[in-house]
Amino acid sequence: MIPDPLDRLIADWLHGTITPEDFPLLDRRLREDPAARRALRRAANLDSALRDWATRHEISAAWAGADAPAPAVAPAPAQATAFFRRWRWPLAAAAAVALSVATYHFGTLSAPQPLGPGTRVLADGTVVELNGAAVIVSDYTATERRVRLERGEAHFTVTKDAARPFIVTAAGVAVRAVGTAFNVRLADAAVEVLVTEGQVRLQPPPAQTAPVAPGNTGTALPSTPASSPPPERVLAARQRAVIATTPSAAPPEVATLTPGEIARVLAWQHRLLDFTATPLGDIVAAYNRRNATQLVLADPALAALRVSASLRSDNVLGFVKLLETGFGVRAERRGDSEILLSRSP
Amino acid sequence: MPDLSDPASNSNPPYEEFVRLFVAHEGRLRGFVRALLPAWADVDEVMQETSLVAWRKFGRFERGTSFMAWAATIARFEALDHLRRRGREQLVFSTAVVDLLAAETLAETDALERERTALERCLAKLEDAQRELLLLSYQPGARFHEVAARAGKSVQGYYKTVQRLRARLLACIESELKHEAP
Asked: Closest to A62 (Cβ–Cβ): which among B39, B104, B136?
């Protein structure tokens, strides 16, 4: 079968390699042939969707796997990372609310742009890790700190402030915390809340007033009349609640997860760490926060060493290998969970 | 009545509303811009400009009308302006083509959205290695020749591989949508 030259023209156009000779042919075909225009729209839509997909998901194997070739590194401070562009925030002054997304600055609302680790620090110091294309909108007042999860999944490590409760809402579900850590995932027809530290108070959406189902481990607070808002319930560390958001939904299901199950739920937090001329001390801290294997700087002067690299946050051994091969660092394993870093002799 | 023509000066800016609308339509809008521009760097710049202009003019957006149509009008203008500024007159589609693409894209935004949803299923049908090979070239900022080198392929070979995989995905999407049809 002879391929339709239109396919090649469209492919070349989208690839940016169409020649000045071919371009008028494509333009004429598009002008005259509705099927050609449809083909271009479909191809462009596919291109755009693939870009979105590639932006939301890490491409792990070729770039950052432990056994993959060494990642691109650049000790030179001025070198920007090859794969990420950053946008400024020109609308900050105009915004009355603080907005964060995993893949792009809302201030510019540009096309999705990975920012490296999808971590945001809110005005009170609360740390939010955003999974993929998660979107949060925060609205802080003098009496409360409110964050709405618009889509996706986010993990919150909340700064304690007894005077201003911290409340996350998602599809009508409210999660209230004072000082704790928890994960919220907004799915199509449910909200999942997993507490990783401390406790939260969970307020299901108004339609759900049924008592806690037998066998559930969530603690129902004192009951309220049917016309009142549904009772809050307390979730403790390691408990996960799945709250259906459909109108006739069953009451929330609460279960206690094992550490392994929790690790699997939160596996998304391992993402590409993107450092540009970052002091090694900061990078080590970033890895230590996310991994059981701890890196220890035996030589304090190493903390000031500037490193540029893009690596998965769970790829500790890959990072150590990078330091050994490119930065004159010697690594020595101490026990099962510690790696000592010092200067090579 | 607050003056919404300058959102920044409004004491209660409609920022959240704007963000919500923009996020909801951004994928389709980018697909529309992608059809008009030959490089992702251009698309990104135009999307950025579009978002800024749309925000500045958001006070003039009539609630209840199509945000997609309104934003696409801005995006179309920004795309053409971008190409003119970059001195690529020879690669600018004729006005007739741009207008047809714009009108037809707006008329089938639902269909394009269904295609995007079907894509998720079709990507899942690819082997992991194929999927990664394809998506490497779509990483923002990726340089095609660098990606090809990392994939261990010549630029030409990698280009052909990507085009084959894209063709497979398009065929898969079409098949998925046929099965969806009542």
From this structure: B136
